Amino acid sequence: MGTKAWSGTRTVVLTVVVTMLFLAAGTGVATWAFYGHLNRNLGTGGDIHHLLDEPKEADDGPKQPLNILILGTDGRDCEGCSIDGESGVGGSDSTILLHVAADRKSAYGVSIPRDAIVDRPECTADDGDKIGEATDVMWNEAYALGGPICTVRQTELLTGVPIDHYLALDFAGFRGMVDAVGGVTVCIPEAIDDEEHNIFLPAGTQNLRGKQALDYVRNRSSTPNADLGRMRRQQHFLSALATKVLSAGTLTRPGRLAAFSTELSKSITTDIDSVAGLADLAAEMRNIKPTGIEFVTVPNAGFPTDDPNWGRLRILPESDELWERMLADRPLHDSPASPSGTPRPSETPSSPGADTSPSGLPTDTTTPADKEKDAADNGLCAPA
After folding, report:
1. 180 vs 53 pLDDT, higher one
2. Helix (H, G, I), strand (E, B) or coil at 174
3. Nearest one of 170, 186, 179 to 235, comparing CA atoms
4. Which residues, 6 or more positions from 248, have their beta carbon under 8 angstroms from its beta carbon?
5. What integer pLDDT is reported at residue 237 of this predicted model?
6. In this model, does residue 81 exceed pLDDT 60?
7. Which of 105, 183, 216, 331 is a plausible cystine mate for 209, CB 3.0–4.6 Å?
8. What residues form DSSP beta bridges with 279?
9. What are the two backbone dihedrals, phi and then psi, of residue 2, each rounded to the nearest 5 degrees?
10. Is 34 in contact with 378 (CB distance < 8 Å)?
11. Which pLDDT score, from 0 to 100, does residue 57 have?
12. What is d(CA 265, CA 282) in angstroms, rounded to the nearest whole number?
């Protein structure tokens, strides 16, 4: 069910969330009329009700790091969202806590599984109703009950990291974004044959559009490693989508870029109240290189079979090191010469024979065979 490793993959999913609006401004698409069009589409989820004190930035001092909560929602009540025959209650299907360094030159994100069992603090729903605190509840229930603001408070309780902004993306907008760039190419190692949810995809490398793309990122019951495998495949798909958006085939075609930005704006719910605000945020991160962004999964493990929470995931104490790094604005990995001497985690989950540090985190000695096995275990083609 779970893994104690930091499963990482270098990707540019950050660009999918914020940078397109910045690029639009730089390519002649973003006239004032176009900005007005995007502003009307943008959903505002309200200000963050912090559980923790926000760090204060000095007027004449260095910038503070940014911590942005990125949420993918699984509601099926929007047009195009009911894709797999499931009802969905609007929970957070995927969650990434993105840490942007104070120097704005690097970033890393931590994925939190939807089935993780956590404590939830008291929060307020969109209609003003109070939602009581609870213990031992599934991670994605917070969004279903109280939307992104409740999930932000839950994240602050779990991590001790104050959240600066949140961005939630629904499936209808996701489908539109994929179609706007002409589809995304993925490699499927084995055919997906899911009669229960009417999801059928052949094996091999193929360009996915529309419903097929949604089927691919949603499916978990007939693909390896359930939710954890799906989370890995979603990360790879977002990386491929971002690469497509940043390609000449999109950036040199203003119509295609405008269509992508429109679909993105229709699907986002955020505490940032305007497209100009999103563009300003993106502009702050313009110096982050794709190779400067890495994503890992919070250390986790399944519950024992005799536990009432069997089938769900528990977040392991090793995750504390991740949160401490964010709070101290330290990189995900220390350099070999750093005083702490923390080894660099592997880009794949730990496997038999992999060397690990005393903390249980794998080192960089993962072999090509280990990487190939990890890809197969998570429904991905072997890395080239």
Report:
1. 180
2. helix
3. 186
4. none
5. 83
6. no
7. 183
8. none
9. -130, 180
10. no
11. 61
12. 14
Give the count of beta carbons closer than 10 Å to the beta carbon of residue 212.
19
All structural domains of the chain? 9-377 (3.40.630.190)
Q: What is the pLDDT of residues 195-229, one digit of tens each?
A: 877 888 999 999 999 888 888 887 777 666 777 77
Distance CA 297, CA 230 (A): 12
Q: What are phi and psi of 226, to 5 degrees?
A: 45, -130
Cβ contacts of 273 within 8 Å, gap of 6 or more? 44
Whole-number pLDDT of residue 378: 81
User: What's the token pair of residue 93?
Assistant: 């299907």
DSSP assignment of 47-73, as one string? ----SSPPPPPPTTSPPPPEEEEEEEE
Give the whole-angstrom CA distance, residue 85 versus residue 380.
24
Q: State how far the Cα of 229 lies from the Cα of 233, in Å rounded to an integer.
A: 6
Q: What distance in Å separates the CA atoms of residue 98 and residue 66, rounded to the nearest whole number?
A: 8
Examine the pLDDT at 348 and tell me if it is beyond 80.
no
Mean pLDDT in residue range 170-195: 85
Only one residue has tokens 């499927």, namely: 188
Both structure tokens of 301: 């493990």
**For tokens 């001497």, what's the residue?**
341
Q: What is the mean pLDDT of residues 112-132?
A: 90
Radius of gyration of the chain (CA): 20
Higher pLDDT, 17 or 299: 299
Burial (CB count <10 Å: 0-12, 13-18, 19+), residue 17? buried
pLDDT on residue 379: 84
d(CA 46, CA 152): 12
Closest CA to 378 of 195, 236, 240: 236
In angstroms, the Cα distances linking 53 to 48, 50, 70, 153, 162 are: 11, 7, 20, 12, 7
Query: Which DSSP helix (H) or strand (E) runs through 5?
Result: none
**Mean pLDDT across 182-193:** 90
342 falls in which pLDDT band (50, 70, 90)?
Answer: very low
Strand boundaries in the chain, DSSP class E: 9-10, 43-44, 66-73, 92-100, 107-112, 117-120, 123-124, 130-131, 134-138, 165-169, 184-188, 192-194, 199-201, 204-208, 268-270, 293-297, 300-302, 313-315
Q: Using pLDDT thresholds of 50, 70 and 90, give the confidence band for residue 31.
A: low
